[in-house]
Amino acid sequence: MAETGCKIRLQSVSKCFDDKCGKTAVLDEISLDVYENEFLVILGPGQCGKSVLLNIIADMDSADSGTVEFTGENNGQVGFVFQRYALFGWKNVLKNVELPLKLKGVDKDVRRAVAMKYIEMVGLKGFEKSYPAQLSGGMKQRVGIARAYTSGNDIILMDEPFGALDAQTRYQMQDEILKIRSKEKKTIVFVTNNIEEAIYLGDRILLLSNKPSKVMKEYVPDLKRPRKNTSSEFMRLRDEITETMDLAL
Amino acid sequence: MYNEKKRSAWMKMLLNVSGLAMFFGIWELIVDIGLVSEKKLVAPSAVFMTFIDKLTNVVPDGNTIIAHTLTSLQLVLIGFLLSCLIGVPLGLLMGFFKPAEYFFTPIFEIVRPIPPLAWIPIVIVALGIGIEAEAFIIFVAAFVPCVINSYTGIQATNKTLLDVAKTAGATNAQLFFKVGIPSALPMVFTGIKVSFGSAWATLVAAEMIASTVGLGFMIQQGRNAVRPDIVILGMSVIGLIGAALTGLLSILEKKALPWRDLK
Ligand SMILES: Nc1ncnc2c1ncn2[C@@H]1O[C@H](COP(=O)(O)OP(=O)(O)O)[C@@H](O)[C@H]1O
Ligand SMILES: [Mg+2]
Q1: Are residues A127 and A137 in the same domain?
Q2: Which chain residues have CB less than 5 Å from ligand 2, an ion?
Q3: How do beta strands A215-219 and A204-208 pair?
Q4: Statement to judge: residues A199 and A214 lie in one domain
């Protein structure tokens, strides 16, 4: 049994893939807990298996061994934000956002209302009728976030959600996600390969090694929000994490 | 910006019209100056006169051009619509559900290389001489592109979009109808357009199965009566209607897939 306050518990999760050069171990006995309402950042170098790990948690992929356990009333239902937005090009913003509820058979009026609430929350009011092709990258990811929240699940997994955005938009979106989070309590697992992003956002940071990846280290940034990447504590932590990552290479 | 768009639209129209004018102009000219004998090639103006004449005149093939055209249209539409009705769902199922793919692919791969015309003898035996046999030949011609494009289109469904729906709890049927089919629609439409082209292009061949009316039949009769004007009239009507209906399908496609031309 997981203790109270723990939302997701991973125990010794391992995963291999068969490819041209034989078997590649990607995840090596990963164990971690995700606590209720925390903003957990999973930080790791590119190709280390972050997406595989998140997909296993979301049940889009399965582990070779180990367990993923959800506690409380949550039976493994999560909202998911994808790196490449993963919007339905043939649906407008409103229909994209309300999709999770539509698939669950929720009445039109109800799901419209919920979708509109989150469209407003991510700052896309007035764009309900727009199609994804008409939106910028940042706006597309706002749609992706609204959709994940509309699902109604209390756990949101985000897989490098700002990875495809330019630096300026990326900073905006980081503030946006913190603003959203202050309005609505959720347990967030946020994957990134960007150290500054991890420190700026995370209540807690788990650092993964190169593949086959393990949890190398945990950091709990003791920094007042809003965090400034120019503050000395911020930079000290950044250097520390950078060093740990470099050592592992 | 707007003016530029408008100008390029005019430019396009102008070039379209000049191309046509040049084609018909040269054609008219080489006949008028006697480069080619009128017995072999008829000038467009003469073809047009024949067209006016054939609106009411049933000589030499027993029917007016209107009757021929309507019969041919009916025939092609039956064959074409049947092929869409069967081919599109079949291709979609084969592309989305592995068991359907494994079950149907071998049969399909064997049927696919058989030219539509090779079916004629067996079809006549099976269905007799008549519109059923003719429609079947057209069906065969139109069927293959419908299946292949629907199959390829739905197979290319973005895996992440399927994941989106799966994490939201979609059933297999929902994945098929709400993700797979909409993803495949652009390719399905391409298939339908190619199908229509094949169907229409097979018309003359299909009407060789003992027709007594139809554009293909009219062309045959024109040939027997040594009336090149009628042969060319038949060809022209097939060309024009083919182009018009393909245009109509493109308009339908734009209406059905409004999100495609956004930017
Ligand atoms: N379906 C798959 N088949 C084979 N190898 C895979 C598959 N998915 C991921 N991998 C491998 O697992 C490794 C980690 O991938 P991924 O989790 O996407 O990395 P990242 O940390 O950048 O998200 C990569 O080297 C990739 O080649
Ligand atoms: Mg990834």
Answers
A1: yes
A2: A 51
A3: antiparallel
A4: yes
Does the global pTM surpass 0.95? no
Q: In the structure, which protein residues have their CB atom closer than 6 angstroms to any atom of ligand 1?
A: A 17, 19, 26, 44, 46-52, 211
For chain B, give every domain's residue range.
Answer: 1-36, 42-262
- Mutation target for B interface from A90, A127, A147: give the one with most B CBs within 10 A: A90
Sequence-distant (6+) residues with CB within 8 A of A192 are A41, A42, A43, A160, A162, A163, A198, A201
Residues B158 and B150: their CA atoms lie apart, in Å, by 15
May I ask the CATH architecture of the domain B42-262? Orthogonal Bundle (1.10)
Query: How many domains are there within chain A?
Result: 2
Question: Is A232 a member of any domain?
Answer: no
Distance from residue A2's CA to the centre of ligand 2 (Å)? 28
| Ligand 2: centre distance to CA A192 (Å) | 8
Q: How confident is the model at residue A2 (pLDDT cuts 50, 70, 90)?
A: very low
Q: pLDDT digit string (tens) for A127-182?
A: 999 999 999 999 999 999 999 999 999 999 999 999 999 999 999 999 999 999 99
> What's the rounded Cα separation, in Å, for the pair A1 and A116?
38
ipTM value for the complex: 0.88
For residue A174, the enclosing domain spans: 1-78+154-220
Q: At A40, which CATH number?
A: 3.40.50.300
Q: What separation in angstroms does the CA of A231 have from each of A206, A238, B180, B237?
A: 22, 11, 50, 78
